[in-house]
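Per reviewer request, we include the raw input and output of the structure prediction for the construct analysed in the revised manuscript.
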Amino acid sequence: MSLPAEVRRQLLLDPQQLAVLWPHSLDKLSQKIYLEDTLSDISDEEDPLPGKYMGGKNGKKLKSRTWESLKKPKRPAPQGANQVAPNMKNAIMAVYMVRSAYGLPPTIMFHHEFAKNPARLQLPVASVQLAHHHRLAGLFFKIGPGAVAFRVVLNMFTNSGMKHTHHPTKWNVLWAKRVQAEEWSSLTEYQKVNHFPGTRGIARKDSLYTNIEQMQKRCGFEHFNFVPRTFILPAEAEELQQYMEQTNNEETFIVKPAAGSCGRGIHLIKEMPSHLLERRLHRNGVEKEPKTYVVQHYIGNPLLIDGYKFDIRLYVLVTCFDPLRLYIFNEGLVRFATEQYGGENVSLDNQFMHLTNYSVNKKSAKFVNPSVAKFGSCSGKGSLGDKDSSSTTEGGKGEGEGEDEEDDEINNASKWRITELKKWCEKQGLNWPLIFERITDVVVKTFLSVEAITVEQLRQYTPFRNCCFELFGFDLMIDANLKVWLIEVNVQPSLACSSPMDKDIKYTLVRDTLTTAGPIPYHRGLWAEQVLSSPEAAAAAAAVANGTYMPIGPSNFIHRSANPAQADGFTSTSSLPPDDKELLPTLGVGGKLVIKEAEDELLRCGNFTRVFPSVDSDVKYGKFFQSPRPNNYLMARWEREKRKWAHPSTPSNTTLSAAPATNSSTFNMLNNSTSTTNTTQ
């Protein structure tokens, strides 16, 4: 969809405004200034936190890799990859940048030869020379303590021109397991960290179901009935006992450790599990409280493929909570049990029949590695919700070439792509668009359960709205009635690549995650001169001395650190003009900035599909927010404005299908638009 020229002109950011909002960004116009600075390599003596990428007990873990080992890979670097000698001082490295369609600062475009997507070539990319080892203008990433240094993450950073650092603050992207309050509070508007404060409320199984239960009580059970009935032990042991007695122990339950992973400790029961309530003895002889377990109704009527149970691993990216911006990756995993399902009352101790965890079933003698099957690459041709979208094989063959052979081999694999599940559903006559609509509804409502606490903590700990992003792994199950059930949410989904299929999916996933997040290269020296010498910095230093943390940021970033839409006077949907009136003329700098950030992000999203906001997100989900968010109303109103230009003959009061937003409309807009280098009059 191409936006009208007048609309593009109204959205284009004036260079003077750009200089005020992002005065230290490293763009093509100011490139020469930074390269004239004295280049100096960061020596090992200047590294305040030497050590390994990944912490752990005694610092010993198999996947732990030092920077020295990264500089000396076991196999040659891919042809065409950026390479810098470890001992080369004053090294210069080419970094690809995504130019903004609306005059905002350019962002880093991540890339790797294993990440496939020809559509990426359509991005307006400019190659910018940066000082690779320059402490003030270079690009650095940090792996936080305890975080698994997945090879796909390390390769994506280094191949895109970034250098690893242990420095506590001099980095562009922080990839961490957990983020401390002082790390959030010290963020600049140019830095990105891979977690939001508050999202731990859906990470642990007990917290997830507690938050969903609260939403059921506040908004109605019928709106949030996508989790099985749940009891949390030992707190609700008495309630579970009474329920089992009422049902004569005829129902099956599944028991999971609240903080467990990889299928460890999961088993099925029909009677009260007394062993879960026993106190534990510590190795020093001191008694400890029983572990926390989640006991759920077992989903006894799952949708089966050739008699096997399966679940879905869906990847969801959140780039902002105010306004809420959610993306679903166009590819994911379908994980099968390795023995045919006999029913909820059959062989309760057979994990290979009842559990779909990959970590469990890969130990089965019947497990078939997907590497023996052909697979399609992430072509970005359409979203999972599109009825006619399909993937292609690595060799570029379409769906009709070798189709029977491909289907036969994939049907034998113990792990599929989601696009293969979609094909199977369509062949079986199942309504895949309805299934995906239900999946999207579950995803959105899950985040609404922690939206209030996350926004509150963002305003408490972080100085800017857009300094966080987070990739989630949703585990979902579909029953025989095509109802979608939420099993759990992973805030640190595994990015290990155990097969070519995993590599194809996860390299593209990480590439698009980081590119969509959009870290902005900046000059740390110029930023420090302005910010660290400000009164806000002095107040923050005093707060730190007293044991508290206070976000800092210059006052000219008010539209990015506070509430842009509210700053323009919009406090609810009634504050916005009706749908038959133009929106942009009523907006100030803050409201337009929210729209420009979202549109630029949509341009960069690659194989992600934006599912929130949408044309009816304010109507469909507005009632579930604990507090009205003006930015969310603004974005929903903007989506309806875009719909009018896409369907000019459609009356403004006509409700269209709320199709998820993809980057294709933005590509078309840029291809058909005039140059964005012109300034507003």
